[in-house]
């Protein structure tokens, strides 16, 4: 078992906790270089790590290390993981478990036991954050769903141009512009030009000088 945490008080507490769960010795590392050396000697280990306090550039940097040691299992324990980090880790590797430092001790014990059995453990808090992120994605359309033509028409709407004016500018029929408007509204999940314009403003498609209600 490898304990990777550079806070002395936290290390002492976690080491005491682990001593009552695992039969093997608990090795302590305080930086990324030392952490990477340990699995080289024996990759069949479990790493309990506070990712946010270690010298990893970002989540991808840790995931690369995880990929290097496919027999190693990782338990991320932190009090500062956000939705984006949790999503990356959960979908980035099946060998990563997640718990929070402020969780009850029995949850941390359970996470270690589950990981020792070869499975992964995602605590309830992390699971709820992941579900919330997925719901936000489903409910919040993105600019990338619009075509270049639809973006141009949405910008024109935001500038206060009428359907007739937009059609004239683009050498298109009013019917064609209306079709584009309907598609824009559908993709952005709005019902009016006013709502579409507000979305364009929030998404940064237009600036404040161009904004029109």
Protein topology:
Blueprint: E1 2-4, H1 8-19, E2 27-29, H2 32-41, E3 46-49, H3 59-68, E4 73-78, H4 83-92, E5 96-100, H5 105-116, H6 124-139, H7 148-158, H8 163-170, H9 174-188, H10 193-203
Parallel strand pairs: 1-2, 1-3, 3-4, 4-5
Helix pairs in contact: 4-6, 7-9, 7-10, 8-9
Please tag this protein with its features.
elongated; 213 residues; alpha/beta; 54% helix; five-stranded parallel beta sheet
What does this molecule look like?
The chain is an alpha/beta fold and about 210 residues long. Helices cover about 55% and strands about 10% of the residues. It is built from ten helices and five strands. Strands 2-1-3-4-5 form a five-stranded parallel β-sheet, sandwiched between helices. Helix 4 links the parallel strand 4 and strand 5. Helix 4 packs across helix 6 and helix 7 packs across helix 10. The longest helix has 16 residues. The radius of gyration is 25 Å and the shape is elongated.
Give a brief description.
Helix content is 54%, strand content 10%. It has ten helices and five strands; from the N terminus they run E-H-E-H-E-H-E-H-E-H-H-H-H-H-H.
């Amino acid at each position: 078992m490898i304990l990777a945490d550079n806070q002395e008080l936290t290390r002492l507490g976690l080491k005491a906790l682990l001593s009552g769960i695992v039969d093997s010795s608990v090795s302590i590392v305080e930086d990324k270089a030392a952490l990477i050396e340990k699995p080289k000697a024996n990759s069949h280990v479990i790493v309990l790590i506070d990712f946010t306090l270690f010298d990893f550039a970002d989540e991808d940097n840790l995931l690369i290390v995880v990929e290097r040691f496919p027999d190693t299992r990782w338990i991320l324990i932190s009090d500062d993981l956000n939705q984006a980090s949790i999503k990356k880790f959960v979908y980035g590797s099946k060998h990563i478990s997640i718990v929070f430092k402020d969780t009850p001790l029995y949850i941390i014990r359970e996470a270690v036991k589950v990981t020792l059995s070869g499975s992964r453990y995602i605590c309830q808090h992390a699971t709820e954050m992941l579900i919330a992120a997925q719901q936000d994605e489903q409910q919040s359309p993105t600019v990338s769903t619009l075509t270049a033509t639809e973006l141009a028409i949405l910008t024109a709407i935001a500038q206060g141009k009428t359907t007739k004016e937009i059609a004239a500018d683009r050498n298109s029929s009013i019917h064609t512009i209306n079709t584009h408007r309907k598609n824009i509204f559908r993709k952005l999940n709005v019902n009016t030009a006013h709502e579409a314009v507000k979305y364009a403003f929030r998404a940064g498609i237009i600036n404040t000088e161009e904004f029109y209600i």
